Fold each of these.
Amino acid sequence: MNTATTSSTVVNEQGPALVGGDESPILSVKNLSVRFQDNIAVNDVSFDVSPREVLAIVGESGSGKSVTSLAIMRLVELSSSGKVTDGTMKFVRASGDIVDLRTAPETQMRTIRGNDISMIFQEPLTSLNPVYSVGNQLAEVLRVHKGMSRREAKKGVIELMERVRIPEPTRRARQYPHQMSGGMRQRVVIAMALACQPRILIADEPTTALDVTIQAQILALLRELKNDLDAGIIFITHDMGVVAEIADRVLVMRKSEAIETGPVEEIFHNPQRPYTRKLLSAVPKLGSMNGTDSPALFHLDREEAS
């Protein structure tokens, strides 16, 4: 874990406290709300992300974690019923220009997605085209977003694959997604996300489908890359063990709302909300089943959910 001194904050009725690092934030989200018709998916969520900072957004399935990330990319609006109904999302581009992602025209958002803000999804097979080699897919990103020639893109593909620690990159670039392991495919997706050196990298449960050894390698790679790029990372997960490995700060969500936020050490050692304590207690501990025949039921009372 990383060193931090600020205590955790319980979100109150006036709205969630901001989460940010020591430097000026790259992204400042305030009072974000998202609806799908009559259903509230995200309600009044606020946070900041600074350079070289990893903000982990944690919570159970359906808490609003992934919808928050899709709102930042303005991808939530691709659903006919999805809509950002309130809040601001101020993003500082590399040029220094400040853009409110909520109100930016779609033409501008197309220049931001992939270039300034990139996303890594949980299952790489859904992000990669099965009929093209991974090298061709990486080259397309470089040619479309960076304006490279075919020769430049071919060289850039090898450099990207080396950067994410893919062995034998020349041979691997000729392979198709199904010919690679899950860990290798995830590295390709990370390389694709990093192709344009984004300022914000959103990782939506990128290690969930991987075994623990590969998971550790991917987390170490992300830590290294965010420092190399001076990028901020929004890491979405339900796994508090992963949070302990990679996060600087944590935002806990439940039922579309942010209920607690703070430095990772404070969240782990002094959680303020019963729900946060329940999330931490769900992390398996060696020897915890000694003397028992079966796992205990996981109870979450209404009083504990607050």
Amino acid sequence: MEPIKLINISHQIGNRTILSDMSISFEEKKVTAIIGKSGSGKSTLLKSINGLLKPTSGEVRVFDAPIDYSNLQALRKKIGYVIQGIGLFPHLTIEENILLAGKTHLPENEIKKERLHEMMKLVNLKGHLYKKYPYELSGGEQQRAGICRALFLNPPVLLMDEPFGSLDPVTRFDIHQEFIQLQRNVPRTVLLVTHDMREAKKLADYILVIDNGVIQQFGSVKEIFDHPATDPVRELLMVAES
């Protein structure tokens, strides 16, 4: 079964076309990096998949069913979402932030704090930090907490919108290694938006390149690097090699 399938989706804002007639499906339990310049439609694509945006036309299917926009809560149980700005609520502790998905989607008696500590251990987030507030954590620790929250319900699909872009190089390297290990231990379908082709090469199985809302190329990492199909793909590879 294809976890995510897009059928001729387009999205327009006024006279501007953000996504144009996209048809693509993503392989189960593999990481696909979605890459392109700023404004190419990467984030809009993720928002269309998790139901935050309804395409102007076309259909998004999740596990072979069209999105039911009247019952997005059911979709949220299947899809974790990690955003660029981490998105932790500053007035909540790390524990409260991570448990938020459970409190939103599960009965109280099904929310297990053991799961909280299990997730923190999995992403190397020190156990004593769960009572801290986001401002008391480093950027890397906050990002780990954001990943814990996205994975708390153990969703089979994880969407990540430039989650590592604001981290310093050393922290970014460490979290890359943790991401790779996490995917080995608990493989899931991951769509990772990034503007960095080197990051895509390191973390992904497949790469989708889009430009101005149009698919330029989709294939394995090796295929993209060995046989770039269009000028926008070649430009991104030139930047990665510089």
Amino acid sequence: MDKVVTTAREAVADVPDGASLAVGGFGLSGVPDVLIQALYERGVSALSVVSNNCGAMESGLAVLLAAGRIARVTGSYIGANKEFARQYLAGELEVELIPQGTLAERLRAGGAGIPAFYTPAGVGTQVADGGLPWRYDGQGGVALASPPKEVREFDGTEYVLERGIRTDFALVRAARGDRHGNLVFNKSARNFNPLAAMAGRVTIAEVEELVEPGAIDPDAVHLPGIFVQRIVALTPEQAADKRIEQRTVSS
């Protein structure tokens, strides 16, 4: 039952080229930076990534993206990541953009064993009708577009069929975790980390604080250990290394 792995490099040692990864985090919050860095140092490439965004401020997944290690991104937000936008528009990267709530539910559904579900989000748009550019040809044209999806009517309202997402691996970051893999997330880090963890067939969690089994009240567990296969305890320095994307002050 002890799922603790000594180092991040050891934890990701079997992630191969071409693997699919669900990666937690929301902006700069709750991003598994240490595990991502370990993948970068191993030189793993041609990755298919499922994540809300693809890193920011040259951190997180942006490290792998800038090195040309990511082949496909499934996400909902490009944001201010100029390299993400450049690679997409240049035809170097395949990108499937999904409404944020739909992305969250696709991850949750995959982890819960639900193959597909109907949602009203995207009906009447290219999300349902097809034609969203997945890959550009580098000269302004579209090399690959999204296919149309099934639309059905229920009680007078149209819904589009969306498939659950499962990935080979998942990388997440938690505030606390025990040796059995039970995890607790802090504030907005809870947005996508539990869902990404559920979607991975092998889920690896870096935790800021490692505690013994029983130290976390069962009612306080955000993600049960059944979804987690490996735990990496961060050093105090790693746990404290948290960037701020936008600094604001009040008057």
